[in-house]
Amino acid sequence: RVVLTSLILLCSVYAQDNIRIDCYPEGGSNQQGCEARGCVWKPAADFDPAGTPWCFMNAEEMGYTATSAGNGVEWSLYKNSGPRSPWGTDLPSLKFSFRDLGDSVINVRIEDYQKRFEAADLVEFPRKTVPSIESLSVNVRDDTDPFSFSVQRSNGVTLFDTSIGGLIFADKFIQIATSLTSKNMYGWGEHLHQEIKHDFSRYTSWGMFARDEPPNAQGLDTKNLYGVHPFYMMMESNGLSHGVLILNSNAQEVTTIPAPGYVYRTIGGIIDMYFFPGPSPAEVVRQYTAFVGRPMLPAYWALGYQLCRYGYTSLQDMKDRVAAVRSYQIPFDVAYADIDYMERYKDFTVGSSNWAGFGDYVREMHDWGMHNILIFDPAIQADYDSFQRALDTGASFIEWDRSDEVMRSIQDLYPMAQNTKIMLAVVWPDKHVGFPDFLDPTSNTQQWWIDEFKRYHDNVPFDGAWIDMNEPSSFGTNEDHPFFFDDSDHPNIEPLRCPTSGPDADWDIPPYQTEAVYHYGFGSILATKTVCMRAVQGRGALRLYDTHNLYGWSESRATQKAVYQATGKRGVVISRSTYPSSGRYAGHWLGDNTATWQDLRSAVIGAQEFNLFGIPYVGSDVCGFNGDASEEMCLRWQQLGSFHSFFRNHNSKGLPYQDPAVWPSVAAATKKANEFRYAMLPYLYSLHYAASLNGDTVVRPVFFEFPHDSETLGLSEQFMWGSSILVIPALYPGQTEVNGYIPLGDTPISFYSVYDDSYGQKVPIGRSRFPAPTTFNTPTFVKSGSIIPRSPPALTTVASRLLNFNLLIVLNDSDSNNERVANGVLYWDDGDSVVEDITTNPHTETAFNYVFSPSQGKANLTLSVAIAQGPSQPKLEYLEIFDFPSSPSYTSFTLNGGVLSIDTQKSKYSPITRILMIYFGTPIDFSTAGVQTISWNSAV
């Protein structure tokens, strides 16, 4: 009995230590300071989880009491007698409310009765819902002190429960804590995560504040990166899933706690939460993107291979590298120019000497069927034509709040800006820059931006825009010796300085600054690497303290319109800084990574996370941006990158070239990987159509397709390409095989190899090792029951779109009718027209359905064209069928009942591999609306 009692007490203490809410999250706690805050001081024991706070809140006593408004959806909250906020005075009264937005998407709000800034007032979400078989409800406990609430499923499972306490609502510090139903959490961003699933074995804090900060893959690093995504998904113990968005644009953070649970903190706005019921992972993302907005459909050519380099010394240097890659006959679509092409790094200019003739070279690339994307930074030098045109047309910039705050030592250098309050800072140009205010409530700023793009396109006919430095980034803010003082390519001009003392410092040094500042240690403030938080936008109506995280989002929205109007085509925009709904306007690359194997592995996770965030056009800088890439690592990264929608090799100034042509082995591997990708482009493009139409993911975690297979929940080194293709890349040096997991479905399924080893053959379910020498393509497998539309690879997408289709058909196991079936879809449009509405965009959409009856030896392939608009699509040339049991009778083929000619010289069947190849005598046209059926019998 004594032993049992001791064990119970130990377990109770351990449980309590797993739900500590930190009272000193900014660090530097000691017993005296802790107790002065009215908190508990208890040093962590050796067996406590890593990161256990020594100073923690009396959370169960902290919060508000509640009085119902009597309508069942609204309560008045009053600060109780429990502990007070250490970070400003608690608001004495609040309003709590919830509502069902439709289809059981639940919105929970905790807000001041006095109107405060809300991100929802600025960010234009469609706020649509989609049906769900699940329903959620909110349970408010207003008879306890403090009050709490929970969100539950209809089956009674609690998904979110604030009864652990800790609610704080001060002017510049808001905190809410919850326990969770499982430890299977995914999302929150933007960070570099070492594993796809969050680690609840420790206390871990992740800041969310857009910052010009490169990812660090060398061990656990919780720093905030370029964008902000306060959205997460949970996989529950029963295989169901739900998602939660906390709509807030201030600096914020989340601390995961081992309970499991988390503590969310923000330093402005309100608590505005949205619960998405799922119940499948795919449905969660569909519900989320219906609410924030479906992702854009990139131009077809934007799915081709892309090459970039920061540090081309001249146009000829760029030409030489492009020619070197093309000389290896590598499929290749897009050549970039980084800021090197500009005249001293000023937007909308071309270097007068080394880059003369750049526009003509872009036109030459167009003749080859290639395209060009240019970089544009939102940093406009304060003394040249573009800046003057902005002022002349009434465009606005980020400004100081008051005239007396303006740094005259900078402002007076520039006659154009001298009589303005424009906040001038330092970025790449030689002189100070201003940042356009893309939240301008008038159309002036956006129209000026569009006009600059149109004017520039007349000179250099680019096809897409890469918008960088848009957190926004500012060099050396508040630093005495910024890095550019030691850069011979940049003048030693005075950096921006934000107030750090007195009443004007409240915005840049608020009572609490979040992990997004504390992570970097002494000397960092919110304005570090960016502009001052006390700046204003929206013609003075908005404080950058509230809107900073929206800058990249707002620029993406304006730039998409600029590309549309400048080019007259769809093109594509790639943005470094993102926010919920950025996917409507732009894709994303994973930032200034490093040429390491750890960074290579992190790219697998990053691409999946941004699909979760509704930004499927995503990828990494292949081979790494910083650092010297090794041959083997670059080869493996080229192979991995060939599965990411955004597929670009890019590296930094002063480093050796790392394009595939540098090493013959990498060139050979890239050619092979790219040919596989280009053959799959009709499938990949159709996946992006499904993302734009329904909110589906493109690159997705394996558990999305197999949520009831618990082994898939933590798979961080493999992924699905749509619902049909499983990819297990080689990610370690010296690797000659991969240790992969073939998942188990709810119904009998199989996977078949579509790479060099055992092509067309079934692989076993469970853990297996698959050969992966550098001369092979990445181990790739197709799920049974799939039909994959393909086309022969070509050197560009322009050329490949002219070639006929073929179908890869992978039969499923027999169904209840003893039939073997497969299904697939193909979306086809002109690939480059502006898509204003994905539902009405002219296109052809074909559903493929294959049924084979082994007992009758009869096969039917139905091509159902529901929509036939826009350009004619290529014809169907041949079929490749896996696991077919016998040779067909070539004379039995019919098309809609009429005789169908088969090319018997090319067609063949192997009883050993069970692969059937059927070539049609004349390729089949299926570009008109209606149903066509191809039938045949097995040979007797």
Account of the protein in words:
Residues 1-15 form the signal peptide. It is found in: Membrane. This is P-type domain-containing protein. GO terms for molecular function: alpha-1,4-glucosidase activity; carbohydrate binding. Residues 9-59 form the P-type domain. Helix 8 (444-459) packs across helix 11 (551-567) and helix 13 (631-641) runs parallel beside helix 14. The termini are far apart. Residues 1-15 have low confidence and may be disordered. This protein has four domains: 2-56, Spasmolytic Protein, domain 1 (Irregular), CATH 4.10.110; 59-292, glycosyl hydrolase (family 31) (Immunoglobulin-like); 300-589, Glycosidases (TIM Barrel); 804-937, Sandwich (Immunoglobulin-like). The chain is of the alpha+beta class and 940 residues long. It is 19% helix and 25% strand. Strand 30, helix 13 and strand 31 form a beta-alpha-beta unit. The protein is built from 17 helices and 50 strands. A nine-stranded parallel β-sheet has the order 29-28-27-24-21-20-19-31-30.
